[in-house]
Amino acid sequence: MTEATDLAERAGDRDPRVGLRAVAALRRVLEQLEAVQVRSARNQGWSWQEIAAELGVSRQAVHKKYGRQ
Amino acid sequence: MFERFTKDARDVVRGAAEHAERAGAPAVDAEHLLLALLGRGPSRASFALAALGVADRGDSVRDALDEARRRAGLSRADADALAGLGIDVSEIVARVEEVHGAGAMSGGRTGRGRSPGRRPFGRGAKDVIEKSLRMALARKDRHIGDEHLLLALTVRTDVVAEVLADHGVTHASLTRVLGEGEGGGRGGRGAAKAG
């Protein structure tokens, strides 16, 4: 019974739809997490430069994305 | 394309923009179209929703949408797909909310400083409007009414479609209560007075 379920699950994992959906979902989670963390850093007085350095992107990129909020 | 929209459909689109504005969302999205479709006066969509027993369950639909928004707008299918990778979304949300407060992962609500002006239509909402045209074509209807917007919401793979399906509103059930389109069958019912 468990074996059958495991097999079914493993077969399902090979379905590209599930894998791609997971990637898209993860990206959404990531976007939200980034927004939460950037907002929190700004509230604590971090500069765009400091935030960008931690995120590993350019200062302009962060500012453009979150600057107007 | 908009000239083929009935007054009802235009009202829904306008209503969606108002919902987005009230919610402080950065853009109008599919969920705002659904919110605008709920609790409307007599129209084809409200008739269909009533026929499917959703008319009195507006609060339940709204709660389900709120809940999904809390989870970064992920549907259950999204959460399941991530669980397949060993990622527990509810755990992530719980931890983030512990530190940053309830609703931290719901996004959009950052708009406290946003001007109350008009919002752009997000990708999801644009997709729904585009699909509503296709729904009308498929039914050989000459107009695009709010029922086509509702149909379009059910054929997507997002939270809104999932919430609707949970409430018994699918493309199949809608087609059943709406009957055939104007072009389907001779003098088919619904030879619309939905002008």
Automatic annotation (TrEMBL), chain A:
Which top-rank group of organisms is this from? Bacteria
Q: Which SUPFAM superfamilies match?
A: Sigma3 and sigma4 domains of RNA polymerase sigma factors
Q: Which InterPro entries does the record cross-reference, listed alphabetically?
A: RNA_pol_sigma_r3/r4-like (IPR013324)
- Please identify the protein, giving its name as recorded: HTH domain-containing protein
Instruction: Provide the organism lineage as a comma list.
Output: Bacteria, Bacillati, Actinomycetota, Actinomycetes, Kitasatosporales
From TrEMBL, chain B:
> Which Gene3D superfamilies does its entry note?
Clp, N-terminal domain
Look up keyword Methyltransferase and say if it applies: no
Q: Bias regions of kind Basic residues — which residues?
A: 111-121
Domain named Clp R is located at 2-184
Q: Where is this region: Disordered?
A: 103-124
Highest taxon listed in the record's lineage: Bacteria
| Record InterPro entries | Clp_N_dom_sf (IPR036628), Clp_R_N (IPR004176)
Q: Which UniProt keywords apply?
A: Repeat
Q: Record keywords: Repeat included?
A: yes
Protein name, per record: Peptidase
* Organism, scientific name: Streptomyces longwoodensis
